[in-house]
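Appendix B.2, paired examples.
Example (i):
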Amino acid sequence: MLLVPLLFFVILASTGLAQQPAAATQSSPTAISLDEAIARARTSEPAFAAAAAQAKIAKLDQSIAQAALLPSAVYNNQFIYSQGGAGVVGNPAKVKDPQQTTASLPRFIANNGVHEYLSQASVTENIGPQQFNAVSKASASLSVATAEMEIARRGLVAAVVGLFYASSTAGNRITVAQRAATEAASLTTLTQQRETVREVAHADVVKAQLQQQQRDRDLADARLNADKARLDLAVLLFSDPRTPYSLVVPDTRSVPARADVEAALIKNNPELASAFAISHLANLNVTSARLGYLPGLSLNYSYGIDAAQFGLYNQLGDHNLGYSASATLNIPLWDWFTTRDRVHQSEINRDTARTMLSNTQRKLIADLEVFYAEAVAAHDQLDSLNLSVTTAAEGLRLMRLSYSAGESPILEVVDAENSLTAAEIAREDGIVRYQTALANLQLLTGTI
């Protein structure tokens, strides 16, 4: 029975998770700003890492396509043996040298002689429109991969922004819940004091205690939610999510001008750039398919040894070194309509890409209208939410004075406390709403 806990501890120790919690709490919390949170998340989020890897691969594909335009060189070394013939070359009666009676030609005609040695450098160059179109396609694919990486990055930023402000408002909700719990405990004490001097009935004490119990539960829930929000964000920031940290919330900024937002949207939006790149790549695929109707040219130059002796000279003292050159023009004649079908396939994909581009443009216009209106509305409500908190706090103060003087029932005090708590929570939600709307607008326009 002790083996399972022991193995569990060994696994935790091997992964670095079996650390003393006291050591973590003793270190000072790391202050994390929004920009630093985004930078930390970029190094650990798998979806962004995969998109970045695809962009690097596309860059290498472009380099490979460009290299295909240049000549390739190889150095070949080969020995070929073929079975020799059984007779003499020519008329045996006229042969004076008995050594010439052995076969000097191969019986199995696969080579130039019984022994053939090849040691030569070969340079090959393929020239045709397909090679140049491949470079254009690789460049378009790189543009698509780069745009997709930017989309993944901004998706990561959106997730970090949401978790950042969720964690921040969860911490502020603890402050609100703590104040409400303290206020409820103070009301309970006041009702007990007034019951002692027979100014109120015991029902007021019961009502105040129920209010205090509820506020204590709300405080416990707020702390639990804050811990969850902190851990959700810490998963993207630290190797150990239990690392203590504090958040540095940026100051509230004003909504940018509409003209600046529209200009940035046209220039920096990754979804629009990706749609344009995909459409351009689809056009290049159509061109590539149509180039299948055109001929291709191949050039080859070889220099070295291709002889019956492996050496610079043969038995007669002649040079074995030599060269050969060839030019091949491949003209397509008949392929059972394969090229035609490929052209039709690429045209279908091109039409789909154009539809996607049009849809992306329309969706961005709608998103711009929604996000900008959301940011303006949320910003305009901030002053109203602050005023509501001030008004509710003043109302609670007056209601407690009225209750202490015996002029108001306890239910009105409880209602005033609930109104203040609701106003404070609404203010926190309003701040998060504005910060999130502003971040969505910045993500849409590429300014974050």
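Example (ii):
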Amino acid sequence: MSRQKTLTRNQFLVLDVLKEEEKPLSAYDILDRLRDEGLKAPLQIYRALAALIGRGHAHRLESLNAYVACAGEQCQRNGLAAFAICKACGGVTEFSDFVLRQRLEGWAEREGFRAVSPVVELHGTCAACVLES
């Protein structure tokens, strides 16, 4: 059974909006796009987002207080979601790096720190924006 088939209508709508957009969206941005679909309350969006994150379909970018669709299952397999966030254009690229995960886990083990949701956000300028400047 496909993971998509287990989604509720609201979750499916929210995920579609996230997949259509190349940039992170706030919950209120998502709500604005889905008002015509009958979603009227922020709580409907937040519940759908929480379920999508829990199922590995979406990520919350803490520094931006915004959401993106998961780019693939690599982060679930590797146990680490990493994002390069361009300050110029707002674009986000999701990537996974085995060595980075190992180093973070090694540090956490040495320090006795138990990571709950390992997410790395790298802020800078993407290659396209560097070329334009």
